[in-house]
Design brief:
By secondary structure, this protein is mainly alpha-helical. Among the domains are: about 5-205; about 370-420, no CATH class. The protein is about 40% helix and about 10% strand. It has helices spanning about 5-10, 80-95, 110-125, 150-160, 170-180, 205-210, 210-215, 235-245, 255-265, 275-280, 305-310, 340-385, 390-405, 415-420, and strands at about 45-50, 55, 60, 105-110, 135-140, 150, 185-190, 195, 200-205. It has a three-stranded antiparallel sheet. A three-stranded antiparallel sheet has the order 2-3-8, with no helix packed on it. β2 and β3 (about 60) form a beta hairpin. Pfam families: DUF7587. This is DUF7587 domain-containing protein.
Amino acid sequence: MTFETIIESFQDFNINPQFQPLCFNPPADLKATCSSLSETPTYLFRVASAKTSAQTSSTWVRPKSTLPHGEDIFSNLNEGKKRDRIAALLNDHLWWKEPPNDPFVSWTSSLLFALQYIYFRRWSYRDGSPLDEINLYVIDTTEFPRGTFIRDLDLLNAFLENDPNPQGDSLAKLKEFRDAKLYFGEYLSQGALQIEGRCQVINAQSLCEGNRLRRIQPAFADIQLPQQRPLWANEVLRLRRVLATRRQTHPAVPHDCMQALREIVGLFENPAWRLPMAVYFAALMGDLIETATASTPTIPIGVSAAALLEELRSYYESSDIGLDCDQLKTKIIAPAAMPELIQTETIFRRVHKDYTLRKALDTLGKARSFLGRLGGIAATVSAVDPDRTATKEILSEVNTIIKDSRLIVCLDAFPQRLSS
């Protein structure tokens, strides 16, 4: 246990079960600009090591600083030069200048972007931490109040007029990058955030063990090979081009790919998280082949949609993403510039359709069995009921059940009632 870990464990003794996060509450003139407050993706990712500026553990995420008395950045925004101060803090944070009074913590909706950040952390001169000291954090944003997270683009738009450095590393230049291809689904929180019970943490060493990431997507670099100038944003763009290609040059081997997916999903301790995280990682495989016979053991050309669904079905029962509902509880915001999220959204739709169809077929099978048993009982009753009085009563009760939409509920119990 490192000295930093010991200090952090003592800090975590101060956990307050009633703790509420510091939410963004923009004034009326900015509410339309900050639309992401009510359109936050269900899952956000963060990668951190001991050298990350914001302290991050499975209990707390703490930025370098918090504003006085836990003050929202939008509070009293028109007093003095507060707009200018917040614009400067935002600019420094998004340009990685790590100011000592930084109140922000960054998250991303893109698993691909987060995974590539592991590579950057591992080999960058700014960090260089070994893999076993780097963690991937995933949080469920539905467990936090509305306004806990806000999209970086919304803040850029809100403070663009107060740009602190218009001729250099500016808010305007960041917005220009984001509006082009350099958009990575960044969201910010402010102040300390208690994430215990609302997150999953996976160690980067476990994630990369056995070449797991490259078995899912061979286009990932070998993280064991040192990189003097590790890429991050440009490498994500390269991988996005791979994912957007319908027939990849070096596709994953289907069987090995599924085994790697199984190994990674098994790292998530809470079974309820396994289906959604399996979908996120499966989206990194790239375009799915529509026919199960599309690949051969010697010439793999990709993973079939049917094979993937067969693998994902093992996680249906433990999932709580609303498979039984008309719409899934998972919110994916997938702009055209993020093929990894477009594919994630597509797989979630396939999963929902597959679950609904299989449930309907199961229900039809039960109904067919029930009607067969009912026909046998009716024939027996007719043989001992020449004037058909009892038969009419049975048919009347069946009709009532159908009208009340209780047919399937009574599938098992009703024949026994008739027999008796």
